[in-house]
Amino acid sequence: MSYALDESYLVEPTGDAALTTENLAVYYGGVHQALFDANLKFAPHTITALIGASGSGKSTFLRSLNRMNDKLAKVTGKIMYQGVDLNSAAANVYAVRSQLGMVFQRPNPFAKSIRANIEFALKAHGIKDKQHLAASVESSLKGAALWDEVKDVLDDSAMALSGGQQQRLCIARAIAMQPEILLLDEPASALDPLSTSKIEETLVELAKQFTIIIVTHNMQQATRISQYCAFFHLGHVMEYDQTDRLFTQPHLAITNDYVTGSFG
Ligand SMILES: Nc1ncnc2c1ncn2[C@@H]1O[C@H](COP(=O)(O)OP(=O)(O)OP(=O)(O)O)[C@@H](O)[C@H]1O
């Protein structure tokens, strides 16, 4: 079945925005357009789930937000954050990434100690004070709900942790710099159900402090943890609304077909 791509239904969150995209578009190799004019506003301290079939542009959108597509693609449009366009040539990419932390699908800790994983970015930003570093290690690991499991083995290799623990370490690493926004690209898709539910609980807790944008293929996960949801199709944001409405009273036929499992 084909659907009209020019009909979208977007219900913006009311109130302040933590981040807003304006006509964000992405062209791989300068020609293949993978994202079309995405206009999304993200409310502070909420979890927004990005859903859609494989290849619909979710990761392309997410990775563009912290400038990870710079070398791969042409990215046009604006990413407004605290009155500044993060997509402008003048924006400092390192500063952007310290405000928008990222966690990937596969846990990718550095082959260093647990402590060194957390300290890495802090030291790179000139923080040397031992007490400050120790406090950041503890608070980041607590934030990622990993502290109790690793507090006695901080100098052991991160590679000895289980997959789920490694992913929570990656979350701890991402929050160590105290970013405002946390971007996660299918962070639990490689994990077992118990580790997945720990990650979900952790994210719900972290949303009190951070604004979270998560790509997920798992619709139950989207309904369990997110307040807002954007449905992508062939590079277009088709529908954006509060998660409960998008799943129970979708506005567009295509959204209904996707959330009821008719395609994707
Ligand atoms: N590095 C790249 N170079 C060229 N094309 C790319 C690249 N990354 C993604 N694409 C293309 O962009 C489109 C969107 O891909 P993207 O990975 O953003 O989709 P997705 O919705 O995240 O999919 P998935 O759920 O499978 O991760 C696809 O047509 C894909 O082939």
From TrEMBL:
It comes from Lacticaseibacillus baoqingensis. Signal peptide: none annotated. GO terms for molecular function: ATP binding. Residues 19-259 form the ABC transporter domain. InterPro entries: AAA+_ATPase (IPR003593), ABC_transporter-like_ATP-bd (IPR003439), ABC_transporter-like_CS (IPR017871), P-loop_NTPase (IPR027417), PstB-like (IPR005670). Gene3D superfamilies: P-loop containing nucleotide triphosphate hydrolases (3.40.50.300). It holds the Pfam family ABC_tran. CDD domains: ABC_PstB_phosphate_transporter. This is Phosphate ABC transporter ATP-binding protein PstB. SUPFAM superfamilies: P-loop containing nucleoside triphosphate hydrolases. The keyword Cell inner membrane does not apply. It comes from the Bacteria. Keywords: ATP-binding, Cell membrane, Membrane, Nucleotide-binding, Phosphate transport, Translocase, Transport.
